[in-house]
Structure prediction request, 717 residues.
Amino acid sequence: MSESLTLGRREFLRAGLFGSALLAGGAGVASLSGCSAPMSAADGYLHLRPADLELLTPLVPVILAGALPNGEADVQRALKRLDTLFDSPSRGSREALFKLYDVLQLGAFRWWVMDAWAHPASLSSEQIDQGMAKWSRKQNSFARLAFNGLCQPLTMAWYTDPEIAKTTGYPGPPRKVNA
Amino acid sequence: MNDLSKLEIRGVRDPWKEGIANGWSVIDASQLNEDADLEADVVIIGSGAGGGVSAEILSQSGLRVVIIEAARLKSTDEFNMDEGEAYRDLYQEGAARAAKDGSIAILQGRAVGGTTVVNWTSSFRTPEQTLSYWQDQFGVKGLSRSELDPWFAKMEQRLKVSKWAMPPNANNNALKVGCEAMGWMWSVIPRNVDGCWNLGYCGTGCPTNAKQSMLVTTLPSAMQHGATLVHGAEARTLEHDGKRVSAVICQALDARRQPTGKMVRVRAKTIVAAGGGINTPALLMRAGVPDPHQRLGKRTFLHPTTLVLGDFEQRVDGYYGAPQSLYSDQFTWRDGVDGAIGYKMEVMPTHPGLLTSLIGGYGSMARAQAERLPHYAAAIAMTRDGFHEQSQGGNVELSKYGDAVLDYVLNDYVLDGLRHSHLTMTEMLFAAGAQNVRPGHGDAPFFSSWQEAKSVIPTLKYAPGLTGAGSAHVMGGCTMGEDLKHCLTDSDGRYHHLENLYVFDGSVLPTSLGVNPQLTIYGISARNATRLATTLQA
Ligand SMILES: Cc1cc2nc3c(=O)[nH]c(=O)nc-3n(C[C@H](O)[C@H](O)[C@H](O)COP(=O)(O)OP(=O)(O)OC[C@H]3O[C@@H](n4cnc5c(N)ncnc54)[C@H](O)[C@@H]3O)c2cc1C
Ligand code: SF4
Prediction:
């Protein structure tokens, strides 16, 4: 009983610190994370930076579990599709998404949402899955907005692939034949 | 099982290909090698519901019209029903627009033809209650239901609006069966279609020209009357002296929406802003137009919308067939016009990209739900924001790059309505025969009985990020009315603080509507563009 109360309080404090930093427009986040000053896109990508790829590569097979028919090969394809998706938002909106990736570089943030300090690259899929499960149940708006910000664009990028769309049982659209 | 993937759509004309071949004046700004300078009687910024209707009326009256559209022209031949391509090419921010805190996904069009190219064709006249509220609260004049009815009738005729006569698809039918079982009202939706193939791809650009969007109706007519369309050109600012606007300054955009460095300047005696909610206020903010009471971008409304999925044993195939053909107003005015927030119930189509991302979650659970996609009915409720002091809507802001951002916070007043709608739609879908039902809330599972749902939903925390919320209806931000303290345009759409600037789009609406907005915008824009044409010809 008393243990859960202390935990609750600590959670609140952490939410206050990182939550407000990000919500205030992320001015503080870049400096908090140190390594996340705007960097240029990774080779072959329009927007995703090397650090984003390192972060997302181990997360994708967990977030899209069961939806990657070609296994590992699909992880890269999913990241490419995500990168393409990021080409359309306005610059300001895109930066907000990147701030989320930046904050995920922080061990303390990961500890708060996933109970894991370590970088995802050094966690097993099971550990990431457990962390995501914790995160997905947090009763804190900021944590949940961040969770959605991580998962939703990836899901949208993946299931708009016509081949993947069909794995839901959707037969696909009619065929347009132009004169 | 329904399977339209074997169907071939052949023999459909592309009015723009033909029109351009016949000499329509179309400028693709992305291809400009040098800055361009144009002159017109009227320049219209935005080619959607308001802009399209205005372009037709003003050019038919003999005025020289230039239409500016940020999106690049994409027309019938290119409408291949690919979801990802459609979001990229036909939606604001590639369909990734959201409220500033990320709590509400905002779908809005960005196309030659505006949001009408991707909307779902539901066509309702503005409710009398809404119009009376505007009269009482904002001093709106001349827009009572009886005064607007002739304009609605005119636009219904122009856009072939009639009640959908075919049987509803199974998704819509679930709403009917559920409402009947509950003893709730339901009715048939009027749609703006002509020879509809009942395919279900209204949201990705109609491949058959059946949908009477601006792309295939008013805009081609304006072009035939000598209008010029400049596409791939985004209006960034206005030249004005605090009294009159003299020109619109646009930047040319390439296929990736990046500025090419070339500018288009359009000088005109009259300026019509028709960029829609969020975008029109953002343009006027960038331009620094007079706004003595700081009203620009305030009172932006969204019809914050909830989703409830019913999992049926039989396939529903909700991605096929006219997407919206039935509705229920059982709860639209549940506590009067200005009490607890009411909501209109409809359904939404279930194409995989959009629906899986709205279902949310991650991992094996998300996947298991995605695999039931063909079995889902997807009921939605659009809450009527803006009729209560606890419902002031969102505020448009500019990012440091000058792009529009909407700060809209889901407060307890709205959240209570979202919970209420989850309860009613869950009960409705069980009554319709769904085996399992899940409200769009991150903590809600698929419930296997109404008893279970009824005991759990009231215990869930309703808060941004936990509660799923979306919007396909951006309204307001340039409130019209005669009360100068709260309103930016008069009831004819003229900007109160500049002589020759008019706003003819959804941004003038003082509140949300309680119905899908297109016919309201068509009707009011037709009235106001006609009045403007008369003034300019005098
Ligand atoms: C998926 C979806 C389904 C919908 N379904 C329905 C429905 O069934 N029934 C209904 O009534 N309504 C529906 N709507 C909403 C309806 O279509 C819109 O409310 C309506 O079209 C808005 O009209 P508007 O004139 O305000 O702006 P829009 O139609 O959005 O047009 C504005 C245009 O201006 C352009 N623009 C903006 N700023 C600039 C600038 N600075 N420079 C150049 N161009 C600019 C934009 O790119 C856009 O093309 C739906 C919307 C969506 C997204
Ligand atoms: S349902 Fe009708 S209007 Fe909609 S895309 Fe299909 S043919 Fe066009």
About this structure: The first helix of chain A runs from residue 2 to 23.
